[in-house]
Amino acid sequence: MPSGSEPSKTPNYKRSKVSFSIAAALFFIMAILWSVDSSIVYIFLGAGGYFLFLGFYFSPSVQQRTTSRPGRMDAPPGRQTFGREGSLSSQWRTVFQQAKIEFGQGAPAAVKGRKILVLVMIIFAIVFTLPILISLFASDNTSAEGTNYIFMGQQQYDAGNYDSAFLNYRNALRADPESADAALGYGKVMMMRHENDSAVLMFDRVLELDPDRMEAVYNKGLIYYDQQKYNEGVTMITDLLKANPDYYDAMLLLGDFYYIEKNYNDALVWYNKAYTDGGIRSRILCHVMAYIYDTNNNYDKAIPLYQEALSYDSTVVEIYQRLGEIVPGDQGNAYRSKASQIR
Fold it and tell me: What does the alpha-carbon distance between residue 103 and residue 119 come to, in Å, rounded to a whole number?
């Protein structure tokens, strides 16, 4: 470049200006679209870094200094000059200037061009891949953090510490908003805190993340039962059992829906399936099934179920009283006597 030419009139100045403008535009777009998708950030950050490099590379000050002082540094060995102001642009220019000198000003044009191209590609690769690597490691850390919160939340939920479980599941969702496990746990804690409407929304979120998560449907059914939405609950749990015919807890819940509406025959069908096929045993299940058989005067099936209910809880006065009424002879007297003792 002639020594007397104005920098603003040189081709390199125009290239530098255009490159800086493109870089600024790319960084601006990246800032606007930051929250849309992480891949957008990587693309615009890499492209912006590339044009930023070109801007400094074509900068007239770098071109003039490297041409006027071939083969030597602007500062003595062991010392680095960053310009009068110590500005970031001066630092970058010095770095690129030294890189150009290392490649050699006197090299043939073809060799020199290839070396510069390699340098550009290396810098571009670093700028483009570094954010991806950082994001991958950050993602792993985020996932591990979310898993830890879920683990603590489950422990506290099992122990009945619902307020602490609530905080941990909320932190798990903040760490990983796409975690169906965190959303499910959060919804279950909301149920225990009687925040049923919020819990339903959270279970819907679970099903968005994982449509096959049947526990979310079951828990929605429990909320519908509590809210007396019996028709909606029957429809939802029936569909759940069609897709998952071995879901025995859902059978019990469907029986409860029918039982609360005094549809005892349908209730008994589902209770029996859970009892016989699922092997589910409890005092309340045996008591309810015995009561249904009792109302149908089917004492042969009612009595053994009443007795089994007492094997799980021997303090239920009502069962002793009823057995004292339907069991004949001395055994019936024994049940009546036991009822009097407990009372």
Answer: 10
Amino acid at 86: G
Condensed to tens digits (0 to 9), the pLDDT of residues 244-285 reads 999 999 999 999 999 999 999 999 999 999 999 999 999 999
The CA distances from residue 316 to 228, 301, 340, in Å, are 27, 19, 12
Does the CA dihedral 163-168-171-177 come out positive or negative?
A: negative
Spatial separation of the C-alpha atoms in residues 169 and 186, rounded to whole Å: 5
145-150 contacts at long range (C-beta below 8 A, 24 or more positions apart): 145/175, 145/176, 146/172, 146/173, 146/175, 146/176, 146/179, 146/182, 147/172, 149/175, 149/182, 150/179, 150/181, 150/182, 150/185
pLDDT in tens, 186-203: 999 999 999 999 999 999
Q: How far is CA 272 from CA 280, 287, 313, in A?
A: 9, 12, 20
Q: Supply 63's token pair.
A: 């071109």
**CA distance to 27, 126, 129, 247, 317, per residue, from 132 (Å):** 16, 10, 5, 43, 68
Third-level CATH fold of 281-343: 1.25.40
Cα separation values, 331 from 326, 328, 342, Å: 10, 7, 17
Q: For residues 52 and 19, is the Cβ–Cβ distance under 8 A?
A: yes
| Closest CA relative to residue 193, chosen from 221, 228, 169 | 169
Q: Which residue from 152, 208, 211 is spatially nearest to 185, judged by alpha carbons?
A: 152
Retrieve residue 281's tokens. 């045993």
Q: Which residue ranges does the chain devote to CATH 1.25.40?
A: 281-343
